[in-house]
C-alpha cells in the first residue's frame, strides 16, 4: 500500500501508474513548465523533475511508497526529548570553586535535527536517517567551442534531504595545455620553425589539426618570410561556441633558423654574396675605432650583476667589534 502520494500528485498520475504513464506525464509537464518557456516556474519544474527521478527508478519508488522520504511511518517523528527540539545540548562543568564552564554540543540522540524516530517505527532501508546513499553517473556533454573555466550546471542533482531543496552539481571545465597550439579566445596560436632556404625560396608545411585533419600551408618562391613574421589561416582556429560551423583563425609566428658559422666555403660564400642584394660598404676614417663583436649571454650577465651586488653589500657591512679581555 502506498503511504505517500505527493510525488504522484505532482505528476498528476495515480499511485499504480505504469512507467510509460509516468514518462508521458513527465514529458507533458516538463514541456509546459520548462524554464526556457516559463522563467517564473523554475520551482515547479524542479518539483516535477525530482518527482519523476524518484518514481522512474524502481528501487527509489519502492522506498518512497513505503515511507514517503520521512524515514519512518507517518506520525512516527517526535520532538527529541533530550534537547527539546533545539538540536543542541548544554552541559555545565565546574572547573573550580565558584567557577563553572558552559559547553554546547550537538545532541547525540537526534544528531542535531531536533527530532527523532522511535527505533520500532524506523524505516529499515535508511534506519530513520531519511536518506540513502547511492552512486549516480552523470553524462557531461561538452559543446564545441566551450572555454576554460566555463560551467556546466546539473540542476537539482545535488544531495537530497526531506524538507530541503536539492542543490545543483556544477562542473567547471579545466582546459589542458597543448604541446603545439595555444588558445586565445576563438584563435589558435603556434610557432613554426623554418630554415633560411625556406624563408628565401618558399616552402610547404603540413600542420596536423585538433580535429584529426592535416592542412598544408604554402609560401611561394619570392615571398620572403622574415624572422618574427606573423601570418594567419582563416577558419582554422577554435570552433565558436553555439556556432559550431564557424571557427576562429590559426595564427602562426615564424622563427627562421640560420645556419651555423662556417657552413659555406669561402668560394661558395662569394657566390652567395653575388646572388644576394648588394651590401653597403663603409668607408673607414681615422676618427673611427675598430671593435670586436662577442657573444652575449643574458643569464650570465644577470648572475654577474647579482654577485656584484652581493660583494658590495659585504663591503659595506659593519664588522663586529672584539670584546676587551681586560677587566
From TrEMBL:
Residues 6-68 form the J domain. GO terms for biological process: protein folding. Residues 282-327 are annotated as: Disordered. PROSITE patterns: DNAJ_1, DNAJ_2, ZF_CR. Residues 51-135 form the CR-type domain. It holds the Pfam family DnaJ_C. It comes from the Eukaryota. Residues 283-295 have a biased composition (Acidic residues). One of its GO terms (cellular component) is membrane. InterPro entries: DnaJ_C, DnaJ_domain, DnaJ_domain_CS, DNJA1/2-like, HSP40/DnaJ_pept-bd, HSP_DnaJ_Cys-rich_dom, HSP_DnaJ_Cys-rich_dom_sf, J_dom_sf. It is found in: Membrane. Keywords: Acetylation, Chaperone, Lipoprotein, Membrane, Metal-binding, Methylation, Phosphoprotein, Prenylation, Repeat, Stress response, Zinc, Zinc-finger. It is a lipid-anchor. A zinc finger (CR-type) spans 51-135. Transmembrane segments: none annotated. SUPFAM superfamilies: Chaperone J-domain (SSF46565), DnaJ/Hsp40 cysteine-rich domain (SSF57938), HSP40/DnaJ peptide-binding domain (SSF49493). GO terms for molecular function: Hsp70 protein binding; unfolded protein binding; zinc ion binding. This is DnaJ heat shock protein family (Hsp40) member A1.
Amino acid at each position: 500500500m502506498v503511504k505517500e502520494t505527493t510525488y504522484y500528485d505532482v505528476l498528476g498520475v495515480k499511485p499504480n501508474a505504469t512507467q510509460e504513464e509516468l514518462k508521458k506525464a513527465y514529458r507533458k509537464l516538463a514541456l509546459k513548465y520548462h524554464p526556457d518557456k516559463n522563467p517564473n516556474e523554475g520551482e515547479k519544474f524542479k518539483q516535477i523533475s525530482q518527482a519523476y527521478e524518484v518514481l522512474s527508478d524502481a528501487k527509489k519508488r519502492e522506498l518512497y511508497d513505503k515511507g514517503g522520504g520521512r524515514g519512518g511511518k507517518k506520525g512516527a517523528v517526535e520532538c527529541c526529548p533530550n534537547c527539546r527540539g533545539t538540536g543542541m545540548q548544554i552541559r555545565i562543568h565546574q572547573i573550580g570553586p565558584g567557577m563553572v564552564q558552559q559547553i554546547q554540543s550537538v545532541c547525540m540522540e537526534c544528531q542535531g535535527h531536533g527530532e527523532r524516530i522511535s527505533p520500532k517505527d524506523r524505516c529499515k532501508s535508511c534506519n530513520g536517517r531519511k536518506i540513502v546513499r547511492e552512486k549516480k553517473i552523470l553524462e557531461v556533454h561538452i559543446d564545441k567551442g566551450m572555454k576554460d573555466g566555463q560551467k556546466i550546471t546539473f540542476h537539482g542533482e545535488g544531495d537530497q534531504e526531506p524538507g530541503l531543496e536539492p542543490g545543483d552539481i556544477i562542473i567547471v571545465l579545466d582546459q589542458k595545455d597543448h604541446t603545439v597550439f595555444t588558445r586565445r579566445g576563438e584563435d589558435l596560436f603556434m610557432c613554426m620553425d623554418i630554415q633560411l632556404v625556406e624563408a628565401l625560396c618558399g616552402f610547404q608545411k603540413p600542420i596536423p589539426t585538433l580535429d584529426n585533419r592535416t592542412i598544408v600551408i604554402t609560401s611561394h618562391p619570392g615571398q620572403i618570410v622574415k624572422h618574427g613574421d606573423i601570418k594567419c589561416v582563416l577558419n582554422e582556429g577554435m570552433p565558436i561556441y553555439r556556432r559550431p560551423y564557424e571557427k576562429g583563425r590559426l595564427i602562426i609566428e615564424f622563427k627562421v633558423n640560420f645556419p651555423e658559422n662556417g657552413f659555406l666555403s669561402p668560394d661558395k660564400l662569394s657566390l652567395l654574396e653575388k646572388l644576394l642584394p648588394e651590401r653597403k660598404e663603409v668607408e673607414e676614417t681615422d676618427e673611427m675605432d675598430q671593435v670586436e663583436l662577442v657573444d652575449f649571454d643574458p643569464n650570465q650577465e644577470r648572475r654577474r650583476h647579482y654577485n656584484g651586488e652581493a660583494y658590495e653589500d659585504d663591503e659595506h657591512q659593519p664588522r663586529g667589534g672584539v670584546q676587551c679581555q681586560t677587566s
